[in-house]
From TrEMBL:
It comes from Linum tenue. GO terms for molecular function: ATP binding; ATP-dependent protein folding chaperone. This is Heat shock protein 70. Gene3D superfamilies: 3.30.420.40, Actin, Chain A, domain 4. It comes from the Eukaryota. InterPro entries: ATPase_NBD, Heat_shock_70_CS, Hsp_70_fam. Keywords: ATP-binding, Nucleotide-binding.
């Protein structure tokens, strides 16, 4: 994924791009990966089994994590349930939005770096910004919206 920031001015119907900054190593997949790592560790703690070498189990877990991330954009808690995730063991876990945010806080902070750099490059102060238009899947994450 990628995180892009553009700063535009609009005067008399004319759009002018003042600055564009991106982080090509930051996107929705990074948030998914954090949740996957967290749940791999939880599975190991609960079942004394390490699933990281099993591609099928990881794929199923990743799909469930992506779904959970999306759900947490509109609710404060969700459950992850995967029947027979690994060696016949069913996996069940609850994740709160607060825990998801905690796991990803450094990534959320990284989202602000391109924003600050874009403002600096455009020589525009935060106070001069009238509107923020968010585009892309990760912009639905409440913490991203809150920080912006």
């Amino acid at each position: 994924g990628t995180f892009d920031v553009s700063l535009l001015t609009i005067e008399e119907g004319i759009f002018e791009v003042k600055a564009t900054v991106n982080d090509t190593h930051l996107g929705g997949e990074d948030f998914d990966n954090r949740l996957v790592s967290h749940l791999v560790a939880e599975f190991k703690r609960k079942n004394k089994k390490y699933i990281s070498t099993n591609t099928r189990a990881l794929r199923r877990l990743r799909t469930a994590c992506e779904r959970a991330k999306r759900t947490l954009s509109s609710t404060f808690q969700t459950t992850i349930e995967i029947d027979s995730l690994y060696e016949g063991i069913d996996f069940y876990s609850t994740i709160t939005r607060a825990r998801f945010e905690e796991l990803n806080m450094d990534l959320f902070r990284r989202c602000m770096e391109p924003v600050e750099k874009c403002l600096c490059n455009a020589r525009i102060d935060k106070g001069q910004i009238d509107d923020i238009v968010l585009v892309g899947g990760s912009t639905r994450i409440p913490k991203v919206q809150q920080l912006l």
